[in-house]
């Protein structure tokens, strides 16, 4: 099981996270036209059911219910014009909505 970050994502996370933060929290929630939406935020703590991944000094914390849907994901950070967003290369996603904010998986029916 793994979560990885590109150089651009690592640079952004290091700028984004406050001093003393545990790391970056990655999760999913049911929503959108495709079923699941990514949630990304500061991890203020590591809970008992969390899995922690580390990539070049940046920790990514994932809750147990999200892990099967994001396992193997590479997080990137892109700037296009005035927009700046995290993007996700998720090997579990079998479809995405047109705006890229939600995705579906074969495993979606299991949750």
Label this structure with key terms.
single chain; 111 residues; mainly beta; Hypothetical Protein Aq_1857, Chain: A; 6-stranded mixed beta sheet; 3-stranded mixed beta sheet; 9 strands; 13% helix; globular
Structural description of this entry:
The protein has a single domain (about 5-110), classed as Hypothetical Protein Aq_1857, Chain: A, CATH 2.60.300. The chain is mostly beta strands and about 110 residues long. The longest helix is centred in the first third of the chain and has 10 residues, at about 5-15. It has helices spanning about 5-15, 65-70; strands at about 5, 25-30, 35-45, 50-55, 60-65, 75-80, 85-90, 95, 100-105. The mean pLDDT is about 85. The chain has a six-stranded mixed sheet with strand order 4-5-2-3-9-8. A three-stranded mixed sheet has the order 1-6-7. The chain is about 15% helix and about 50% strand.
